[in-house]
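sanity check this chain:
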Amino acid sequence: MAKKFPQTNYKDITKVAKKLGFYLLRQGKGSHEIWRDKNGRYTTIPKHGSKSIKRKTLKAIIDDLQITASDFLKILHKK
């Protein structure tokens, strides 16, 4: 059986994005933020506070960050 993507929130996603060199570029539509890195890669992260991000949305963000789900968890729990 395939491993499910982790359930996470805005704070955790931005923590990983910052560790990968992404920064907040601008506020998008509504409660969404556009994050970018120095190489020009970007992703849109929904800012819904402590509310969980849907798994499909998280998969798209992880794909934009060009990492795997297991890499995401390793980076998140790394101090």
Remarks:
- The two ends are 30 Å apart (CA to CA).
- The mean pLDDT is 91.
- The first helix runs from residue 10 to 19.
- The chain has one domain: 8-77.
